[in-house]
Amino acid sequence: SAQSLGGTEGPFAAMLVMAAIYWQGLSWNGNRRQRVTLAVAVGLAALARPELILLLPLVLLDRLLITAVRSRFERCFPLSLVRALGEAAGAALLALPYVLYNLRAGGPWWQRPELAIRSLTPLAWTKAIVVALWANNPVLLVMAGLGLVVLTLAAGRDRTEHPTFLPALVPAALLLLPGFLWPGASAAHAAAYLTPIICASGAAGLF
Questions:
Q1: What is the pTM of this model?
Q2: What is the DSSP letter of 185?
Q3: What is the DSSP letter of 41?
Q4: Residues with Cβ within 8 Å of residue 131, at least 6 apart in sequence
Q5: Is 56 left (phi over 0), alpha (psi -120 to 50) or beta?
Q6: Are 87 and 38 in contact (CB under 8 A)?
Q7: For a designed S-S bond to 164, which of 25, 67, 180, 196 qualifies (C-beta 3.0 to 4.6 A apart)?
Q8: In angstroms, how far apart are the furthest CA atoms of the chain?
Q9: Tens of pLDDT along 4-56?
Q10: Are 159 and 101 in contact (CB under 8 A)?
């Protein structure tokens, strides 16, 4: 869990989020080993940071969106949905011992992000991350917006070999949802694992 990583959960979570995005795209037409690797990356990311449990539904949503788009070009609906459910179930299975331990200990089934020192509105989470990213590199943040458009359009093309909308879904969800799901949560560590996604999106925006 996040506490056991001694404050290094930000970079560790960043690596796992990027790995999940990479393997999500690669496993569209990939083999079983690639899909298992995806499930492991998603499950470990969820254990690294509480709010990254959102990766599980995002993986399913991404597969649904890609399937809806690709069904115009190829017959892939039943098989891709079965694979998506298997990948999400594998990630959930990896996190299951942690959930069972929490329930047996009498605590909440899932750890919540750290609370802020003072009471915050749900959108304060979003504001804190945007301010932190803007302070580090405003140009990169602007280019990331363009990059997200490029990556989203590329994922919807029939000639894209490894399609995924996760580069857009992950930052959008992690910017907007945690403040509503965990009111009063602190976004102090969130910028650490969103920065690599912003950098990758910014690079896509340059090209």
A1: 0.85
A2: B
A3: H
A4: none
A5: alpha
A6: yes
A7: 25
A8: 52
A9: 444 566 678 888 888 998 899 888 877 889 999 999 999 999 998 888 999 99
A10: no
